[in-house]
Design a protein that fits this description.
Length: about 150
């Protein structure tokens, strides 16, 4: 009879040990599951950022490969135009308005890129769209035709 009573006590304590182990496992695994969820989100953001950086680097390499004749100093500019310094024939290009874009690379207005809508070859003026947020300064702003 005594051994039967001890056996019941042991089975009760074994059940308590199993329940305690399950509670500890649950308490430890919930933060780990949350950590894995956040990890997958951060990996997704990092993947997107890496793609963006790689694409920007490719574009920069393409720009660096352009001939020097497509770079210059703006002779004049206003909110909707820029006067290029090559006059009639910009770096051997007959029609600057055919799919070109102009990027302001230095000086006043640097960092803006606009599409060339039309080009007046007699004055060397390229009309851009949309208008410049900050117009290029005369003889101060550098540009790059893309």
């Amino acid at each position: 009879m005594f051994s039967n009573r001890a056996s019941k006590q042991q089975s009760g304590s074994a059940l308590i040990e199993v329940i305690a182990a399950l509670v500890i496992l649950a308490l430890v695994s919930l933060p780990l599951i949350k950590l894995f969820t956040y990890d997958s989100i951060f990996v997704s953001y990092a993947k997107h950022d890496l793609r963006s950086v790689n694409r920007a680097q490719e574009v920069m390499e393409e720009i660096k490969a352009l001939p020097n004749s497509l770079k210059g100093l703006a002779l004049a500019g206003d909110s909707g135009s820029i006067t290029l310094n090559a006059g009639e024939n910009v770096g051997g290009i007959e029609d600057v308005s055919q799919g070109y874009m102009v990027a302001l690379t230095g000086g006043v207005g640097a960092g803006q890129i606009r599409k060339v809508e039309s080009y007046d070859s007699s004055s060397g003026t390229a009309f851009v769209s949309p208008d410049w947020a900050t117009p290029p300064a005369d003889m101060e702003t550098t540009y790059l035709l893309l």
